[in-house]
Amino acid sequence: MKCGGSTLAALPGSFFEDMRQLQDEGIVTVIVHGGGPAVSDTLNKLGIETEFVNGLRKTNEAVLDVVEMVLSGQINKEIVRRIQLTGAAALGLSGVDGHLIEAQPVSNAHEVGLVGDVTKVNAELIQGIVSMGYIPVIAPVGLGADGGQRYNINADTAAGAVASHLGVEQMIVVTDVPGIMKEVDGVKQVLPVVSVAEIEEMIASGVIYGGMIPKVRAAIACIQGKVQEVVIVNGSEPNVLSKVLKGTGIGTRIVR
């Protein structure tokens, strides 16, 4: 499951109860989270300038310190706390811990700095945590192959890579929208299934516009390796995770 930090903070307690219920049934959620707005907020408070190039945050060592502090610290532990309040067990870690996420510089590193693409995920570590009865909560900070350099990794890229290395075929992207909407006879409806090619057409024709474009592109970024489909759902919908897994037709399924 991929979730933005600000989305998770706004979710009702019932969302985490649903997660505990699934764990009781033997279905464990592996969470990869973001937290861009909280990082921006902290950078502003500290007077550190921040800018984006094609959706990626320009990252130097000073920005990276804040990214790690906010994502691996504040947001990661808030999610862990909220899961544990339901009686479930959670373990928070970042890609740095146990060489969980290995990364290399992105192709346009000359423009964005210390931003990484995932090259390897230590899936055995995640499976070990799950087998011990914990829900893994992962912050998207990675390490270079030599273990010395840290990288800021886009949360969607990290989530897709973690899902693929775990061999998971379906991924859930939790947002604050019910799915991809299309106007039919003047009424906005959620599209139940849409392909990656259809999404590109809908962006080009203006059916998908504004703040929905980055959400949808983010979901597409998760379809990599073994991941065959991504489901976009609204996290505040009651029992949303259970509904997705039971195939009740909630949200929008993006398929290859």
TrEMBL record:
Substrate binds at G35, G36, R57, N152. Residues 1-234 form the Aspartate/glutamate/uridylate kinase domain. Its EC number is 2.7.2.8. The keyword Metal-binding does not apply. It catalyses: N-acetyl-L-glutamate + ATP = N-acetyl-L-glutamyl 5-phosphate + ADP. It is found in: Cytoplasm. One of its GO terms (molecular function) is acetylglutamate kinase activity. Its main location: cytoplasm. SUPFAM superfamilies: Carbamate kinase-like (SSF53633). The record marks K2, K215 as: Transition state stabilizer. Keywords: Amino-acid biosynthesis, Arginine biosynthesis, ATP-binding, Cytoplasm, Kinase, Nucleotide-binding, Transferase. InterPro entries: AceGlu_kinase-like_sf, AcgluKinase_fam, ArgB, Asp/Glu/Uridylate_kinase, Glu/AcGlu_kinase. It is an enzyme of class 2 (transferase). Catalyzes the ATP-dependent phosphorylation of N-acetyl-L-glutamate. HAMAP family: ArgB (MF_00082). This is Acetylglutamate kinase. It comes from Paenibacillus aestuarii. The gene is argB.
